[in-house]
Amino acid sequence: MSKHRNGELVANKPLKSGYYQADFHVPEIARTARAGQFVHVRIEEGSQRILRRPFSIHDVSEDGLLSIVYKVVGIGTAQLADFKPGALCDLMGPLGNPYSEPDPDTVPVLVAGGYGSAALFLLAKNSMQKPYLLLGARSEADVILTDKYAALGCGVRVSTNDGSVGHKGFVTELLPPLMEELAGRKVKIYACGPHPMLMALAKQMTGAGYDGELSVDHLMCCGVGACFACVVKIKADTPEGWEYARSCKTGPVVDVKDV
Predict the structure, then answer these.
(1) What is the phi-psi region of residue 240: left when phi exceeds 0, alpha when psi lies from -120 to 50, beta otherwise?
(2) Which of 4, 62, 175, 193 could form a disulfide with 116 if both were Cys (CB 3.0 to 4.6 A apart)?
(3) Strands 253-255, 212-215: parallel, antiparallel or unpaired by DSSP?
């Protein structure tokens, strides 16, 4: 069950190119959080610094730290980036439907777009088989966290739209050759990234018969299913063949067969 907890900001460090990692001491949430879930964060200091934003849970530690990764893209995240250790924040979580845990004999293939890599890290960390990370980004400036994945022993492959690092092209182009390499092994694909990437990946996976789950997180307001601001289309037994579902409740993680 999700709860509101005051969390102390322990660290708020820049990574690169406007990306930051924030670590909160919030053991009540950290000990129950699972990969793919998110927290809703509100800054409590000062009337001009009140916000609540959803952030994927990047990592948790045994000593009660919960980490998020974010990019400064607007007023809210700019305010968050200004906060120093010791600031108190209200965190609501863990929220949302998580990724399913890979079977012990299954190789996880993680497909990330941009800082979708943040949401997949906890899954990689807890997997019994060494995962592969396929990371797509616009340019080298948006390639983050690859060193952390490599430190776990993951196979890391990168594509960029401009070819500034790795394969020049889309991340979906990295999947077929890897799946050929893994032929004969049990594989499951887990993905998080921008909506166009996820839709292209879902079409690719469905066409090839690949099993997997996608995090279809959308712009959220309440985070608890009350406001219906984050609806996405999923398959359903209706005349249209689909229905709207709240990504904060039905998702953010859904089976690719339902997309």
Answers:
(1) alpha
(2) 193
(3) antiparallel
Tens digits of residue pLDDT in 57-78: 999 999 999 999 999 998 888 8
Strand-strand pairing, 132-137 and 106-113: parallel
Q: Which CB contacts under 8 angstroms, 24+ apart, belong to 147-154?
A: 148/121, 149/117, 149/121, 149/124, 152/124, 152/125, 154/110, 154/124, 154/130
pLDDT at residue 228, as a whole number: 47
Q: Does pLDDT of 215 surpass 70?
A: yes
Q: What is the DSSP string of 73-102?
A: -SHHHHHHHH--TT-EEEEEEEESBPPPPP
In this prediction, residue 218 carries a pLDDT of 55
Q: Is 18 within 8 Å of 138 (Cβ atoms)?
A: no
- What is the residue whose two structure tokens read 């968050």? 80
Which letter, b or e, does each residue of 98-117 get, where b requires 16 or more Cβ atoms within 10 Å of its Cβ? bbeebeeebbbbbbbbbbbb
H or E stretch including 198?
Answer: helix 195-208
Q: Residues 80, 55: contact at Cβ < 8 Å?
A: no
Residue with tokens 């340019």: 139
3-state secondary structure 1-59: CCEEEEEEEEEEEEEECCEEEEEEECHHHHCCCCCCCEEEEEECCCHHHCCEEEEECCE
Element (H, E) at 159: strand 155-160
Q: Is 226 exposed, middle or buried (0-12, 13-18, 19+ CB in 10 A)?
A: exposed
What is this structure's pTM?
Answer: 0.90
Closest to 179 measured CA to CA, from 122, 215, 132, 137: 132
- Count other C-beta atoms under 10 Å from residue 240's C-beta: 7
Q: Who's near 204: CB < 8 A, 6+ residues apart?
A: 172, 175, 210
